[in-house]
Design a protein that fits this description.
By secondary structure, the chain is of the alpha/beta class. 54% of the residues lie in helices and 10% in strands. It has one domain. It is built from 19 helices and 8 strands. Helix 14 links the parallel strand 5 and strand 6. The protein binds iron/sulfur cluster (2 copies). One iron/sulfur cluster binds next to helix 7, helix 9 and helix 18.
């Protein structure tokens, strides 16, 4: 990380430089262990390596430049929040989920320890002043997905302007309409906050922009279906994680370049794994950057992660928004319909997620599924029962795991994952 170039920027953001230095020390080490130790990586991963090496520099500097031109930045925490609305008002949306144990103690100063690490890390990153993205965002956009988040927003809202989107908990027709209305209200908030008007034309352009990003990410995932894996799970995960922060047009461009290379690799019969490597689908709670723990353990144990049914995975890009609508009202409905096709455990019932998992297991020709739960996420924990039962009924081996951001359970995870892979034959 080229620290010197950005110190002034971090200072101006009011960051705690001493604490931040500690983060800058551990992150490159972790990255080098997990990523740079791999062999035969696609050349186009160089872009993503660069983004990580400059993660608190390049993109934050772009966001600040946007603010200098009177632009606003919205920080989001969930894949149900429609980025399209933000971009339609000439603003930028950036993901804010925290995936490092580094931020957890900061969150625990104001939150109970028995809360999911994603929430604790997200709150800690803001309150400890150690993440530029959490300092830059002019407004945070929360949602009423899970109880922990709902209450955490109240605490974050004391420190930063916060808008909360009230997400339905079911998916009946009236819920789709309710989410459409909520998106329309969000558009009003965005208009007022940015001083810019959203019209059918600007929203239409934003819908296309984000759809292009989804299509590009989907191409990379499509390549992962090949019998000879052209990319590791770790690398694909990194691309997904960075997609939450990057400029959407550049994200699409770089993912398309990567997909071109992967398609060529498939044509040339290039694989990053030895023949016969067992193929794993990961399902469960999101893996926010820099949470690479499970992929690292699974792939170092001799298996390949070929797909993630996660928010940092297929839930982020599957299903496109209908681009044919020409009025704001109809576009809001099209957005609602697309976003409500995403299947998070915060909904009941959530059978469509089971269908997704079974479909992905087949499409990616997996040998087994690992169902991952972030500690204290009761939603995914409870749903794990139904997920694992459905997989067993379908004759697909499944391993349920619970973990957090620490390395304390690494030994135990290695043992359990190793035994599972061995059992796959
Ligand atoms: S797991 Fe659910 S609440 Fe969390 S980011 Fe995904 S959709 Fe949102
Ligand atoms: S992982 Fe579970 S508890 Fe954590 S933020 Fe997502 S839904 Fe909430």
């Amino acid at each position: 990380m080229i620290v010197a170039d950005y110190v002034k920027m971090w200072e101006d953001l009011g960051m705690d430089l001493e604490k931040h230095d500690a983060l800058c020390e551990v992150l490159p080490m972790a990255f080098s262990d997990v990523y740079l130790s791999q062999e035969n990586r696609p050349d186009n991963m160089a872009f993503y390596d660069f983004v990580v090496s400059e993660i608190h520099g390049v993109r934050p500097a772009e966001l600040i430049e946007h603010q200098k031109q009177d632009g606003k930045v919205f920080g989001t925490f969930c894949v149900y929040v429609p980025d399209e609305v933000v971009f339609a008002a000439g603003a930028i949306a950036t993901g804010l989920c925290g995936g490092s144990q580094f931020w957890v103690p900061g969150g625990e100063k104001v939150l109970p320890k028995g809360l999911c690490p994603l929430i604790k890390a997200s709150v800690g990153a803001r309150l400890d002043k150690t993440c530029p993205f959490f300092r830059i965002a002019d407004m945070f956009v929360g949602e009423t997905t899970c109880d922990g988040k709902k209450k955490a927003w109240e605490i974050l809202g004391e420190d930063v302007p916060m808008h909360i989107m009230d997400i339905p908990q079911m998916k009946r027709d009236k819920d789709i309409v309710a989410w459409k209305d909520e998106i329309a209200s969000f558009a009003q908030v965005v208009e007022e906050f940015t001083g810019n008007t959203i019209n059918a034309e600007s929203l239409g352009e934003a819908i296309e922009l984000i759809n292009e990003k989804r299509k590009a990410l989907a191409r990379v995932y499509e390549a992962r279906k090949a019998a000879k894996s052209p990319i590791s799970g770790r690398d694909a995960l990194l691309m997904s994680q960075i997609a939450f922060y990057d400029d959407p047009a550049r994200c699409a461009q770089m993912a398309n370049k990567l997909a071109d290379e992967l398609e060529q690799r498939i044509a040339d019969g290039v694989s990053v794994f030895p023949e016969g490597t067992k193929r794993i689908l990961l399902t469960g709670t999101p893996l926010a950057i820099p949470n690479w723990k499970l992929h690292h353990i699974i792939e170092n144990s001799g298996a390949a992660v070929v797909c993630e049914e996660m928010c940092t995975g297929t839930r982020y890009f599957e299903n496109l928004v209908d681009e044919t609508q020409t009025t704001l009202e109809d576009q809001f409905m099209a957005l609602s319909e697309r976003y409500m096709k995403t299947n998070c455990a915060c909904f009941t019932p959530n059978n469509a997620r089971i269908d997704d998992i079974l479909r992905l297991a087949k499409d990616y020709d997996v040998d087994g599924v690992i169902d991952v739960n972030l500690k204290f996420c009761s939603l995914y924990d409870v749903e794990g029962y139904t997920v694992e039962r459905a997989l067993k009924e379908a004759g697909i081996p499944v391993l349920g795991l619970e973990t957090d951001y620490t390395d304390e359970d690494a030994g135990q995870l290695k043992t359990r994952i190793g035994a599972f892979i061995e059992m796959l034959g």
